[in-house]
């Protein structure tokens, strides 16, 4: 589903050159749940943003569902992103002025769905995360765990082929974090691939595979993978 070869990332400013990611190869198959771990500043968000077509890479090749994304225009990338990728962030990124229904519907407005299709998708997605009876509520009326569920519903409503999550449980207490992890596991079991950055090794252990990034060096962590298995 996702094949990266010799991908690397360098940030250049006037005075500094940061090699955020050293060249790496990575294959992710449809249906996999992959956790990404590593210390702060090691390159995890950069890696996730490249994967999600939010940032360009400096070298290498990247195929997403057999499509070479290297030479796509920004417009083509946005479209691919909107249709194939769902994003979940640590800080939820919900729009406070919009109720839950409108928050989940927002990205669907950039697609060619009828109003009826959009409504069906929003209701389905809010049902999956257990919040369909709250659709008229506003984000600030919900707990952190519930807000993250809304963000997950928003990511799911477009039927993406995979979900990218950057520390999705980072702002939650451990019982809410466990709830979000079991929701993500259910979504994965239902067929959506997931790539999740986390600081929490216990949450990472619930994934199928763990990729580790240290100082911009990405490795499949065999020792962690064996411990987990
Ligand atoms: N836009 C940017 N410009 C310059 N350097 C950046 C930028 N974004 C990240 N970096 C640098 O790249 C490295 C990796 O950052 P990041 O991917 O955010 O790490 P992590 O998510 O693991 O904490 C860090 O050294 C960071 O300072
Ligand atoms: Mg980060």
UniProtKB/TrEMBL annotation:
PROSITE patterns: ABC_TRANSPORTER_1, ABC_TRANSPORTER_2. The keyword Nucleotide-binding applies. This is ABC transporter. It holds the Pfam family ABC_tran. CDD domains: ABC_MJ0796_LolCDE_FtsE. GO terms for cellular component: transmembrane transporter complex. PANTHER family: CELL DIVISION ATP-BINDING PROTEIN FTSE, LIPOPROTEIN-RELEASING SYSTEM ATP-BINDING PROTEIN LOLD. InterPro entries: AAA+_ATPase, ABC_transporter-like_ATP-bd, ABC_transporter-like_CS, MacB-like_ATP-bd, P-loop_NTPase. The keyword Zinc does not apply. Belongs to the ABC transporter superfamily. Macrolide exporter (TC 3.A.1.122) family. Residues 2-229 form the ABC transporter domain. The lineage of its organism: Bacteria, Pseudomonadati, Pseudomonadota, Gammaproteobacteria, Alteromonadales. Keywords: ATP-binding, Nucleotide-binding, Transport. One of its GO terms (molecular function) is transmembrane transporter activity.
């Amino acid at each position: 589903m996702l094949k990266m070869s010799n991908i690397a990332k360098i940030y250049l400013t006037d005075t500094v050159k940061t090699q955020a990611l050293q060249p790496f190869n990575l294959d992710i198959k449809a249906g996999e749940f992959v956790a990404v771990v590593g210390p702060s500043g090691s390159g995890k968000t950069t890696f996730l943003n490249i994967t999600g077509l939010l940032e360009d890479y400096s070298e290498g090749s990247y195929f997403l569902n057999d499509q070479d994304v290297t030479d796509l225009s920004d417009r083509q990338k946005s479209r691919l992103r909107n249709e194939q990728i769902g994003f979940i962030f640590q800080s939820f990124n919900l729009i406070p002025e919009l109720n839950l229904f409108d928050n989940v519907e927002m990205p669907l407005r950039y697609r060619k769905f009828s109003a009826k299709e959009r409504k069906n998708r929003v209701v389905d997605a809010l049902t999956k995360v257990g919040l369909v009876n709250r659709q008229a509520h506003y984000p600030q009326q919900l707990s952190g765990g519930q807000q993250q569920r809304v963000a997950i519903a928003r990511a799911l409503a477009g039927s993406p082929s995979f979900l990218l999550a950057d520390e999705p449980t980072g702002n939650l207490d451990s019982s809410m974090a466990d709830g979000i992890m079991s929701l993500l596991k259910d979504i994965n079991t239902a067929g959506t691939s997931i790539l999740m950055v986390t600081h929490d090794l216990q949450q990472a252990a619930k994934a199928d595979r763990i990729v580790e990034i240290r100082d911009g060096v990405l490795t499949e962590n065999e020792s962690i993978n064996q411990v987990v298995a």
